[in-house]
Structure formats: structure tokens, C-alpha cells
Task: structure prediction
Amino acid sequence: MKIKQKIYFNDYFDYYRYFSFLIDKERNESIKKIWDEIRKTNPEDREKSGRAILNLKTKEIKRIVGGRYEISFYKDYILENEINVGDLVILSEDPNKFFYEGVCSYKDRTKIKVILDKKPPENFLNKNLRVDLFCNDITFERAKKALSLLFFKREICKILLGKGKPEFRNENIEIKNSYLNSSQKEVVKKTLLAKNFFLVQGPPGTGKTTTIAGSIYEHVKRGYKVLATADSNIAVDNLVEALLRYDIKVVRIGHPAKVLKSILNNTLDFILEKTSEFNEIKIIWQEIERLKDINKSLNIDYKNLKNIETFIKNKKEIKKLKKLVRKLEKRAIRKIIKRADVVCATNSGAGSDILNEFYFDVVFIDEANQSQEPVTLIPLTKGRKFIMAGDQNQLPPTVVCEKISPFLSLSLFERLIKIYGEKILGFLNIQYRMPDDILNFSNENFYNSKIISAKEAKKRNLKNILEEEKIEILKNLNDEINFILNPQKTICFIDVDSKEEKFQNATSYFNFKEINIIKEIVENIKKLGIESKSIGIISPYKDQVKILKETIKDDIEIKTIDGFQGREKDIIIISFTRANDKNIIGFLDDFRRLNVALTRAKRKLIVIGNSKTLKSNSLYKKLLDYFKEKNSYIYLGR
Result:
């Protein structure tokens, strides 16, 4: 089936065919890619690539909320890897034969914990085990289901086809909220006046999540029941944290291992533990375990009919008790959600069985520019009105299948702007993160200079946070470092005469010269008394990130651009990595990645790259000229 990118659709069936095809393609490619990698890569290479941890020994098994099991594994040293808390993983001796699906709940240099729905047998846990990063199939199933449900959501369906009409109430509303500035209040007012849908564009540092939280509060005050979602767990947690300043009941649905510790008290599992039903459930589980132990101890053979009779009787009783547990859990959960003002979940989590019976007056979707349209449908089909927040000038949805990337990387947020224009878009224009020299390149090139800086942001630099004696230390360092770390200047570009490299059969790149310069810069930053938590290092390339982590053995956040969206640090160091004679910059040419990278720093932005390669692209040439104009450009030939 050949398809073209669509902005408008003829009818529901045209829409269904288009996205059903894309969901299947993306699902098949995601699963194929992960299994190809597991089957074709020998275990040691997969561990070196950071996608598996081998030779794990079982240390401890603990029963936790919801009848799940948290199992701790250890080894002498766990290599740097891509497995993070909240990731879906598989636990196995050999994943090609048999495995358990679980979620990583903890990880350090010698230990990893995995939460499983079922307890594996002891003979399995006594083996040398491995944990592999895996992919989640359930999101595709839920997206497909939401696509079918859209047929019954006539008004929302019209909007998505491009045949809807934005409707607004004509009322005078005054927003009294000390947490919001004038720009945010104006946008919140528009979200309240919108009858069917509205979009909020929040450029970097403008408080998009704060605004959405304010709008949710104003809707709840007026009696609306709200579902609030985002594509990632961290974005949902940030929204929950922003909501906790208000006197409203917020429930966070999702696996406890995927949730920030600061909001655990608001998770469904935590609230469930406080219910009368949960006390009953605990007693029933103890009885189930007792009956299981009895059955294990029975000597079963055809001569011992009494034992067989007891075994069968216990099995029936266990089945009956488990059914009662499910009934009690369902009753308690229904009560909790009914009492909540706001239910928060990931976009995929909004399609969980827990919310099957529930529909909402308003659905809020944060970070909407990062969500594939079929996944956005999961929460959308659960409400009457929707508010989406995002920024089409920041990162688009991640798509695994390259052939369909042009179609699925167009988010619903961006498509609706193309259809309905500025009348359905509120723009947040006051930013609090960075001084003007850091902001201005992005502001001029991506936002038509519409963003203004708050007073406190204008004054930010390193000098504000450095003690006088530390500034004296800086004066005694070499001229190059002195120029780069000048505490009164907020930006610096380091032009490096270097060469990019690749591992065999890899698609990613690394650049040792840039890595060594970054290491030297970090060592000198630490001499100034600046803590690791205030520094962030970004590269567009995974292999550069991997080697940077191995080289800079410090608790500094080092991530790809995609991993740093929504984050901020006092000092950001960007390694562009690409340096070649053909002047190829690869996916650096996506202006949205550049925009995200340049707008993470609060006080100091240090950019490292090869000007010969970068200036082949007109936007990057503009960037280099910008640094030169600001007298913030240095050439290091070494």
C-alpha cells in the first residue's frame, strides 16, 4: 500500500485505513528490530552496546503492592547501559527459549531490580540470568482500539478529519492565580472559553506544564472531571508535581516503578493500600500462599488418593480466592477514581483496563508534539473536550520504521495547527530559563522573536553563583579555558579540527577530540566548585554519549538531545560530533533538535563542533556567525 502524507481526510474510513496501516507497520518494525537484535547479536556484544546485562545472580525476592514481585539481581560490576528505571525488560537465561516480561525498578553499578507479575520458580532464579531492554506491544493494541472507538466520537472525529469548527463561549472570565504570569493567564482563559478543543504552544522555559496545571485547576473548580496525560512517564510526573500545589484530588495511574518518588503518595497503588478492601486483600493473599505451600509439600502419586483430593480442593479454593481479590481490587479502584478530580496517566496508560468504564469532561495532553497521532487517540477518545500543549518547533514523535517516518512523525498537535491556524493556538511568550544571549538565536530563527525574557532570566550567568575566590582560580587557568569559562559571558563556541569515527556496522558516530576537550572543560568547571548536578552534556549521537559516560566518570547527566528535552542545567555542553570531508551533518539538519539542544542552559552554553563540516548547512552557518558576533568563538586546533 502506497500512501502520501495527509493533513485532511475525506471521512472516518479514510482516516482509519491510513492510521491502521501505519500502526501495523510501526508495530511490526518495532518488534522485528528488537528480536533481530536479540537473535543476531551475541550476548556479550549486546551487553557492550548497553541493551543487556548478563551473568546476574538473584539476591532477594520481595512481594509488593498488587500481588507483584520485586526481584533484586547483582553482579560485581554492571557496565554503562541504556536500561533505565521504568523500562520494559525481559528476564531470562536465554531469551530465545523462555523469558519473563517485567519492569526495571532500580539500577546502580552492582544491582538491578525487576518487578514481575508472577514469581518465577526457584530452579529458574538459581541460574545465571540476563536482563534485556524490550519493547511494549500493548501501546499498539490500545492505539488500534482507540482508532475503532473514534467512529463513535462524532464531534472529535470531525475535528481530526479537518471538518470541525472551533467553538468558543463569549464570557468574561477573570483568572486569579498567583502561580501564573499574564501570558499564562490569558492562555488559561482561552482554554476555558474553548467549547471543543484548544492548543497551547509553550517554547522552552515558558512554563507550559505550569500553565496546563493552572488550566486543569480552573476546570476542576468549575466542576469538570479531568484526564491528564503525556507521552512519557517523566512528563506525567512533572504535571502531577505541578498539580500538587492546588487543593484538588490527583490520582496517578501507572506502574510504581515508573513513577517519581516525590509523587508516590498520589499513585493508585499507594492510595489502594490505604483502603479497607486492601486489608481484606492482604489476608486473602496470606491464605492463598498458605494453600500453595501445603500443595507444594504434598506427595502426589496415584496411590495416595487423599493427597490428590487435598491438592485439587486447594487448587479450587485458590482460584476462588483470586477471583475475590480481583473483585475487591476492582471495587476499591472504582471508588478511588470516582473521588478523584484529576486522573493522570501516560497516553498509553489511559487505555488500561482500570479506566475502561470511565469518561471525562476534559482531556489534557501535555508534550503533544512528541506523541504519534494514533497514540494520542487513546486519551482523546475518553473525553468530550480536549486541550493539547506542546511546541511544534521542538522534537517530533520518535518513529522506528524509517519508511513511514514522514507520516507518523507529524504529530496531531502540528497537524491541527496546519488545519485550523492561530485561532486555536495560545502562545506562551515569557520565558524564565535563560539569559538573552542563549535565547536569541532560537528566538529569532524559530519563534519570529516573539519570546521575551523575565527580569530574573536576563541577569543569569556563572558569576551569580561563583564565589570571589573561585573567580580568582579561573584567572590563573590557561587563556583558552579562561575564555571558554568566562563567568560574565553566557555562550561560547569551540571550533575543533577533528574527525568523526564509527564502530563497525554501527549507524552512530563518535569524536575523540571533542570528548577529550569536554573532559578538560568539566575538570576545570569542577575546580570552580560547581556541582555535577548543575552540569549537562548533550550529543545527538548515542555512541558519543556512551564514550563520554565512560570517559567522564562522574555523576553528570550525559544524554542525547532526545533524552534532554524538558530538562535544564546551569551549564550545558553540546558536542555536535560530526566532522568529515564530505560536509555531511546527518540528522543534525533537523532544526528542532538544534532548538532543543540550544535552549537547555540556564547560565552557560558551551558548544563544540567542526566549523568546516557545520557551515555547509545554512542554519549552522548562521549559528557560527551568531557566536562570532557575540565575541564568543574560539578555535582550538589541537
